[in-house]
Write a structure and sequence with these properties.
alpha/beta, about 240 residues, about 30% helix, 6 helices, single chain
Length: about 240
């Protein structure tokens, strides 16, 4: 099922106005800092309420300003992976992964968590806490948590930018494989043309809060005009 996004949202003089479809597979949201990439993901996840528009996954309506429908965050089944990862520091890897799994008994959640850690090749971290992980290990645990919840949509907000080239390429290949098997829409926000080429199947070029053009990954060229960012930075962590 495809993700359909048509939203408008204004924030301190910056207007986000995007309209696009993301079919199963990886869609890259590519553009300069401040173009509205992270803000778009936040609207999809339900972290930000758009001023107007409609968000659907197949026939399932997540947001519709006309009818007043709005699906709560916890019922959207969106897996959101940030650069900061947001792992719970007081939980083990297994507990972090099990946390997002709903609808199962505790023993079943534990079994599924261990299975996902094994798939991401970090089963040895099950009883360890995040402070002991390397950057690549932490990213694998975060991705295991994302896939363990069987998301309907996967959102990746520059999660690979702090990794070295070898670890990054390995993870990109594995994520693409998992997304293909899960057959879900995934949106990757990145400034990195290498990440886009490795993981993406199609590209949405976003500038100043608008989708400037769309392209297949082969036809994209991945050259974005360098424009001055119009949107203010909303926090130290997030550039919209």
């Amino acid at each position: 099922m495809s993700l359909s996004v048509r939203v408008r949202h204004a924030l301190r003089g910056f207007d986000l106005d995007v309209d696009f479809e993301a079919p199963p597979g990886v869609t890259v949201l590519f553009g300069p800092s401040g173009a509205g990439k992270s803000r778009t993901l936040a609207c999809i996840a339900g972290l930000v309420r758009p001023d107007a528009g409609r968000i659907t996954v197949g026939d399932d309506v997540w947001f519709d300003s006309t009818s007043g429908q709005e699906r709560p965050i916890h019922r959207r089944r969106v897996a959101f992976v940030f650069q900061s990862l947001a792992l719970f520091p007081h939980m083990t890897a297994e507990e972090n992964v099990a946390y997002g799994i709903g609808g199962l008994e505790r023993a079943e959640r534990r079994t599924r968590a261990r299975e996902m850690l094994a798939r991401m090749r970090v089963a040895h971290l099950a009883e360890r806490k995040p402070r002991t992980f390397s950057g690549g290990e932490a990213q694998r645990v975060a991705l295991a948590r994302a896939f363990a919840m069987t998301p309907r949509v996967l959102l990746l907000d520059e999660p690979f930018s702090a990794l070295d080239a070898g670890v990054k390429r390995e993870l990109l290949d594995e994520v693409r494989e998992h997304v293909t098997k899960a057959n879900v829409p995934a949106i990757l926000v990145t400034h990195d043309t290498g990440e886009a080429r490795t993981l993406g199947e199609r590209v949405l070029f976003i500038e100043k809060g608008r989708i400037a053009r769309t392209s297949s990954i082969d036809e994209a060229g991945l050259s974005v005009p360098r424009v001055r960012a119009a949107e203010p930075v909303s926090s130290a962590r997030e550039n919209p």
